[in-house]
Here is the input.
Amino acid sequence: MPSGFLIRSISSILVILVAAAVVYSPRPILILLLIALAFIGALELYRMVSSLYPGMSLGLLLLLTISLVISGALANMTGKLYWVLFACCASVLSPAAFSVLRLSPKEGMIPWLFTTGSSLYVGLPMAHIELIRGLESGREWLILAIISTWITDTSAYIAGSMFGRRKLAPKISPGKTVEGAVASTVFTILLVTILVPLFRLPISLTWGPIVGLALAFACQMGDLAESFIKRAVGVKDSGNIIPGHGGLLDRIDGLLWVVLITYYIANLALT
Here is the structure.
């Protein structure tokens, strides 16, 4: 067995175990796990972006990202979503204060925007994973988000490899095709329509395809967003923490957007 294949297989198993831990672990362990994942994701973003914009503060970025994760836990414990809003405000205002006090106007604008954007990009979805776990049938909603992301990514790759002709976003991700995007959307719609009654989620069958469409779109946009960042800074992978797969953000780029949409769809369904 080729060593590269073995490494990728072991890494894939570890990724599955982490996903299972996110879904099923007790809440204290979940919070610690999300903090660790947010830390790694923010660090990968910093390493990509800081080479072009050295004025960014790694310590501030990590603090804001982790604060967002903790805000999700506080919102669940208190039933008050304003904890997340407060953390979002801190992600905007703290980098602004840092830039004003430490950097010149020309030097400070870009680090301010990138620190705010990076903390929200990683921390806010992690907070929403915690928020999803706090919902009725939260585990089922989270499984739906994870499976939808996987089927969208996998079917887009397979269909694009077999039938792809027209490039979806050639300047951002040349490997992605329109045919792959369409096929993955269809597969995700079908899958979500099947899983909604199977998981006994409070969504009618007529809304199942709409939810599937929303999750497929979110996954593809999340994938393209990370590709946009990598293309802008000139790197192939966000990191190398997962041997044979690249960085953490390379594995969860679509999921970061999907969990956001999933949380608000679930809330609409539960009201």
